[in-house]
Amino acid sequence: MTYPRKTRSEEIIERIRKLIVEQDLLPGSMLPSIEELADEFNVSRTTVREALIYLASMGIVDIRQGVGTLNSSASSSID
Fold first, then answer.
1. What is the 3-state secondary structure (H, E, C) of the chain?
2. Which of 5, 10, 19, 49 is most exposed, with minimal Cβ within 10 Å?
3. Which pLDDT score, from 0 to 100, does residue 74 have?
4. Residue 16 contacts residue 31 (beta carbons within 8 Å)
């Protein structure tokens, strides 16, 4: 049985969620910039943006133009 491959943005979604949990970021804490995340995960900024938009739609992060991306949920609720 084969499983469908994950897209790059799906992989980055999981990695950002893991980053939030591992760093125990409190609600309102800033995440690294899109550029920093892209460098850290070795993907394009577009891929990171797609992942962040998805996480924002789930209520996990809050994207604020000109400010950055904030953790908007308790870390324990995203495991």
1. CCCCCCCHHHHHHHHHHHHHHHCCCCCCCECCCHHHHHHHHCCCHHHHHHHHHHHHHCCCEEEECCCEEEECCCHHHHC
2. 5
3. 52
4. yes
Q: How far apart are CA 12 and CA 41, in angstroms?
A: 7
Q: How many Cβ atoms are within 10 Å of 22's Cβ, its own excluded?
A: 9
How far is the C-alpha of 45 from the C-alpha of 66, rounded, in Å?
Answer: 16
Neighbours of 49 (CB within 10 A): 17
Give per-residue pLDDT as tens, 11-52: 999 999 998 888 888 888 899 999 999 999 999 999 999 999
Gap between the Cα atoms of 66 and 43, Å rounded: 22
